[in-house]
Amino acid sequence: MSGPVLVIELAEAVPSASIQRLRGFLVGASTHFEEKRVGEYDLNIDAESLGITDTGGIDGRRPVMVP
């Protein structure tokens, strides 16, 4: 995958309950979801699921890696 990348380094470990909530959101918002290992996801986000309606004529899906 190429393109812009955003990395956010956290000061401490994220609680497992928060990771499970994030996972639930990502499953619901994505058109493709694969969990490579706990907390690392490969998915395609449907822009409309994030409230983005102007996709510029493109199908609206974008690949996203969430480590």
Can I get a quick summary?
With 67 residues, the chain is α+β, with helices and mostly antiparallel strands. 21% of the residues lie in helices and 31% in strands.
Structure description:
The protein has 67 residues and is of the alpha+beta class. The protein has one helix spanning 16-29; strands at residues 30-37, 40-46, 61-66. Strands 1-2-3 form a 3-stranded antiparallel β-sheet.
Short key terms for the protein model shown above:
alpha+beta; 1 helix; single chain
Q: Alpha-carbon distance between the termini?
A: 14 Å
**If you compute it from the alpha carbons, what radius of gyration comes out, rounded to the nearest whole angstrom?**
13 Å
Q: How large a portion of the residues is in β-strands, by DSSP E?
A: 25-35%
- Report helical residue fraction: 10-25%
Unreliable segments of 5+ consecutive residues: none
The whole-number mean of residue pLDDT values reads 75
Order of helices and strands: HEEE
Count all strands and give the number: 3
Envelope shape: elongated
Strand order of the largest sheet: 1-2-3
Largest sheet: 3 strands, antiparallel
Indicate the structural class: alpha+beta
Count of individual helical segments: 1
Q: What is this structure's SSE topology?
A:
Layout (H helix, E strand, L loop, with lengths): L15 H14 E8 L2 E7 L14 E6 L1
Antiparallel strand pairs: 1-2, 2-3
